[in-house]
Amino acid sequence: MVDSLHKADSLQEQRPGVKVPSKDTILTPRFYTTNFEEMAELDISSREADFQALLDEFRTDYNRHHFVRGDAFNQSLDHLDPEARRLFVEFLERSCTAEFSGFLLYKELSRKLKDSSPVLAECFNLMSRDEARHAGFLNKAMSDFNLALDLSFLTKSKSYTYFAPKFIFYATYLSEKIGYWRYIKIYRHLEAHPENRIYPIFQFFENWCQDESRHGDFFALLMKSQPQFLNDWKAKLWCRFFLLSVFATMYMNDVALRPEFYQLLGMNPRDYDLDVIEKTNRDAAKVFPVVLDTANPEFTARLDNCVDKARRLSAIGKSNAPALIQSLQKVPPILGIGWQLIRLYFMKPVPAAAPGTVR
């Protein structure tokens, strides 16, 4: 863990109206790069017709006219207290950074694959269009709170994490699918409880999450076209690793560190996350050779144990103890989280579909 685990994202400004980007931690959205030469050598001929059909769907651009700010955004936000405003800015920044990360990766892939695989290149280009639209919409929403991100500065200043292509596939597939379930569950909750829809951006989530789902379908198809990424013992280990990484990161972020945001919307963050995990795990079973046993009570119990220790870390960070004492006090909960994650990883997985098949 890092010292900033317990801290609220700063509302400091680089210049008037431009927010200082939040510091990177192991739980914050990252920017990625990969081996573009290896990507250029991918052979998708076994699924060429499927890729063409998906490309035609991307070209249709169902949300071309969706992300248009209407009169609802002209409402006053005076009803939000300072803490609620901070929570919204934090949510919008994290979401914008994640979408912008996807835009940068997909745009670069579209450039690198233009000559070697025009179909893949156009798919990535059109997905980058979607991600740019999402990021721009979120950044504009931040301006309702008198702040915004300087995305060009973010491009240059943020560190990039290298992942080999197959790891990009695993991670991005899960990111897109879990994004779908996160957005649609918030949308459906607020559809049933409109009194909690305290900011109009949530009205856009139903169509928005369909972009996420289509992007996930693209990466599912990409993995199915490369069975070597799914059909050996190493794939089983890596799929379990990425599933656990995505689920545990979301769970600690939402339940331990940021429950107030979901409570503001009238949601129980623990119930929300567990349902998102179950639905995403179920989707992953259509592609991955194994998935996690999320129905096992031990799975939830160990995640809850991580949450307890993450809260302990937060409390230590907020204490008035000297920095050295805080660092020493953090060692047991950090080791405890690590131990719980190891135990979760080695829980017996659930066999899924045969690698590369379609359900």
Distance N terminus to C terminus?
39 Å
Tell me the strand order in the biggest sheet. 1-2
Instruction: Describe the sheet with the most strands.
Output: 2 strands, antiparallel
Segments where pLDDT lies below 50 for 5+ residues?
1-9, 354-359
Shape: globular
- Rg from C-alpha positions? 21 Å
Question: Tally the helices: what do you get?
Answer: 12
Descriptive overview:
It is built from 12 helices and 6 strands. With 359 residues, it is mainly alpha-helical. A two-stranded antiparallel ribbon has the order 1-2. Helix 3 runs antiparallel to helix 4. The two termini are 39 Å apart.
List the helices and strands and how they pair.
Blueprint: E1 13-15, E2 18-19, E3 31-33, H1 36-40, H2 48-60, H3 82-112, H4 118-143, H5 151-157, E4 160-162, H6 165-192, H7 205-224, H8 233-257, H9 259-264, H10 269-284, E5 290-291, H11 297-318, H12 323-345, E6 350-351
Parallel strand pairs: 3-4
Antiparallel strand pairs: 1-2, 5-6
Helix pairs in contact: 2-4, 2-7, 3-4, 4-7, 6-7, 6-8, 6-10, 8-10, 8-11, 11-12
Task: Describe this protein with a few key phrases.
359 residues, two-stranded antiparallel sheet, 6 strands, globular, disordered C terminus
Summary?
This protein has 359 residues and is mainly alpha-helical. The protein has helices at 36-40, 48-60, 82-112, 118-143, 151-157, 165-192, 205-224, 233-257, 259-264, 269-284, 297-318, 323-345, and strands at residues 13-15, 18-19, 31-33, 160-162, 290-291, 350-351.
